[in-house]
Amino acid sequence: MPLRLRPALETDVPLLRSLAQRIWHACYADLLSLEQREYMLAWMYAPHKLASEIRRGVNYRIAEMDGTPVGYLAWETLEGGDTVHLHKLYLLPEWHGRGVGQAMLAAVADASATAGARLLELRVNRGNARALRAYARAGFEKAGEVLTDIGSGFVMDDFILRRPLNLRASDSDVRCGTGDPRSE
User: Fold this and answer.
1) 74-93: per-residue pLDDT in tens?
2) What is the pTM of this model?
């Protein structure tokens, strides 16, 4: 069954929010408190915020298998055009281990390289061992660390990962992925 990555429209905001709720609570249960997950979901996935990002050109895609939404991703080219920042790559847990995350990541890398970018970067929670292993298999290397105060006593403690776009994303199995405050 082929993966389809269709552009997300403003009318898809409720779907993005629903997927985020399901995925975040499953993927971050061992990494973030329920309070922090709820806070971040309300902040990062507020309807007006998602709609605004879609309008301003952040590349949101809905991942579908046989017409059923199974995840989503979002990326944008940074000023200067050489670097693409992957803001979000999330997949329902029941689809992990099937190569869908790898295919999603490969699609972003291919689209970015075709657009002329030379570097793909993202942020990932430093405690998310599965995602860190998957991104390492896909050629990403640690390029820095960032601790971001997001309010209400919460922080995002992330590694910054980068990889050149002349690499293929093969062999990766990207799981509960990336959430980036720069796009939020």
Assistant:
1) 999 998 889 999 999 999 99
2) 0.86
